[in-house]
Amino acid sequence: MSASYLPAGLPIPVPEVDGLSTHYWEGAQKGELWVQRCNACKGWQWGPEWMCHHCRSFDMGWEKIEGKGRIYSWERAWHPVHPALKGHGPYIIVLVELPQYGNIRMIGNLLGDPNQTVTIGAAVEAVFEHHHDTKPPFTLVQWKTIG
After folding, report:
1. Residue at 6 is within a domain
2. Rounded to 10 degrees, what is the CA torsion of 128, 129, 133, 137?
3. Per residue in 73-83, pLDDT tens?
4. What is the domain count for the chain?
């Protein structure tokens, strides 16, 4: 994607100081979607945690997944949550469920017309919005409808 969906001036997302989400951010920069998977019980989870939500094991790993899911919930935001978003409403935020990965859910923006009709259950896929010219460089995971 060559153009930025969001305006300049927003804070740059970076991994936490403790490094917990580093695999996610590094994968996104390569155009890959990575989520946690427990090495003990093989349960999937998102967001990143030091401990498995299912079996309480601390033996957590990361796996690359296919960025395809369905819209579980959504909201059309009209009010800016940051000064850089003033005058950039509305925009659509979606909660995407990934059925093939234990029904984990990820949040992001839905690309396209901000006034489009959004359907619960619609198929979506991850889109990687690269910002290589920033310090530090980063990539946002956005979503677009497919089908």
Report:
1. no
2. -50
3. 999 999 888 88
4. 1
Residue 5 included in any domain? no
- Confirm if 138 and 13 have CB atoms less than 8 A apart: yes
In a domain, 12, yes or no: no
Burial of 2 (0-12, 13-18, 19+ CB in 10 A): exposed
Structure confidence by residue, pLDDT tens digits, 59-98: 999 999 999 999 999 999 998 888 888 888 899 999 999 9
Q: What is the mean pLDDT of the chain?
A: 92
- 4 versus 117: the higher-pLDDT residue is 117
Residue 11 has pLDDT above 90, yes or no: no
What distance in Å separates the CA atoms of residue 123 and residue 6, rounded to the nearest whole number?
Answer: 22
Residues sharing a CB contact under 8 Å with residue 110, sequence separation 6 or more, in sequence order:
71, 74, 92, 93, 94, 116, 118, 124, 142, 143, 144, 145
Token reading at 50: 């030091």
